[in-house]
# Entry
Amino acid sequence: MVLVFGTTYYAKRPFGWQTANWYYTKAYMGALMSYAIVIYKTYGPPQLNLAFLHRLIVDENVEYLLLAFFWLMMKPMVVTLLPFVVFSLFHVITYTRSTLIPAVFPGVTLEIQRVRQEERSGTVRTGLSAAGRVSKYMGDWSSKYYSPALREVGVWEVAVVGAWIVLGAVTFQTPLLAPPFYFQFLRMRYALSAPTRAAFRRVRGFLDKMLTPPSASASVPGLVTDSYIRVRDFLIKIGDVIMDPAAQQQQQPQPQR
# Structure
């Protein structure tokens, strides 16, 4: 909730940049607290062994925790907040529906279960209380939009944040450390997340249509098309290595004995 409200006030910037940046900082502090709690609830106290470390490395919550800390240390970039806001919004909805509402209205959970059973059997006989209707609506809304939201967040992370960071580094608006750090994050997401791989495919399809023949406009310079194809093919090779490093090793020439 700290993240959601902090981002809202930062986006509005009602009291000037200094106050807006304060909200930006609070938003990312909320993200850090949220992910830290989730990680601790999942794994418990830290353990000094390689197995525990490996479990942390491949956990997306740890990846986003590190990314949130990195953005917190950088100059504010509002485009980086959107993925965290989307995730936090669904977390708030889930927590409200599964914890807060049942705490105030203990009978809501059984009430919704009964109605859902009646819906499956096609015989809805009982209605829901106001709290039950709110809880059920939140659950239905979350189930309907969670997967589409993840897909759009993946595209945003790849296309918008990635382009913003590269452009910022080229124009010296962001530290040169930002692109390699963020691309390492994307590399991990590509290896572990199917929605991220799908996002890369969507971005590639869009750019292919806009920049390569026969669908590209005749006004697109040949230099732009050639440069895009080189960068695209280079990234495809990196993706192939990420998904199948053994194949890349087999393609490398063996040293002569």
